[in-house]
UniProtKB/TrEMBL annotation:
Name of the protein in its database record: Uncharacterized protein
Organismal lineage: Bacteria, Bacillati, Actinomycetota, Actinomycetes, Pseudonocardiales
Membrane-spanning segments: 42-62, 69-89, 101-122
Keyword annotations of the record: Membrane, Transmembrane, Transmembrane helix
Amino acid sequence: MTAERRLALVAVLVQAFVLAVLEVFFLPLRLDGTLLPDVRDWPFPISVVVAIVTTPMLVLAASRHARGLLVASSPLLVWLGTLLVLATFGPGGDVVLVNDWRTLLLFAGGALPSAIAVGALMGKPH
């Protein structure tokens, strides 16, 4: 693998880390009139939609830069690892993830489409 491809793969992994952090921090958004319009204080987990769209794209981008299952699944592993670290420790000892259905939806929305993308790459002939 050339230095150019390694740099591109590192950039994809950094993007997976940054997206995971942003998705966790924006997960508790609510339609409460503070930042978004007031619609009966409903949860607005837009970061789940972002995770559903971006994590498979990162897996496919990583697979373009090098062959191998570990390289292709590395953005998914970085994304999951970041979510688990933020769920366990958090900055300053705080727990960042909320304890409700939105957290489960975030994990499922990011991991399942990415796992399907990894499976599709495994099924491709070299």
